[in-house]
Amino acid sequence: MNAIKIVAMALIVAGALGLLYGGFSYTKQTPEVKLGSLELSVDEKKTINVPVWLGVGAMAAGVLLLVVGSKKK
C-alpha cells in the first residue's frame, strides 16, 4: 500500500469520526494557587466542535485521493 492510499484512508476515517462524534473534549489542568510546596490546580474541560463541512470535506478529499491514486498506475 503506497503513501497516497494511506493518507486517503486516514482522511476518510477522520472525516467519518468527525461526522459521527461532532467533536471531542479534553481536560486542561491549570495551576491557580501556589503557596510554598502546596499547589492548588483547577481542571478545565475544553470542547472542540468539528464542523460538518470539515468532516464531509475530509471524506471527499480521501475519496478523491483514492480515485486519483488508482488511475496513476
Quick description:
The chain has 73 residues and is of the alpha+beta class. Helices cover 53% and strands 34% of the residues.
H/E topology pattern: HEEH
Oligomer: single chain
Going across the biggest sheet, name each strand in turn: 1-2
As a percent range, the share of helical residues equals 40-55%
List unreliable stretches of 5+ residues. none
Q: Structural class from helices and strands?
A: alpha+beta
Beta-strand segment tally: 2
What's the story with the biggest beta sheet?
A: 2 strands, antiparallel
Termini separation comes to 13 Å
Overall, the morphology is: elongated
Average residue pLDDT? 88
What integer value in Å does the Rg equal? 20 Å
Give structural attributes:
73 residues, alpha+beta, two-stranded antiparallel sheet
Write up this protein.
This protein has 73 residues and is of the alpha+beta class. The chain has one domain (3-71). Helix content is 53%, strand content 34%. It is built from 2 helices and 2 strands; from the N terminus they run H-E-E-H. Strands 1-2 form a two-stranded antiparallel ribbon. Strand 1 and strand 2 (38-49) form a beta hairpin. The longest helix has 20 residues, at 52-71. It is elongated, with a radius of gyration of 20 Å.
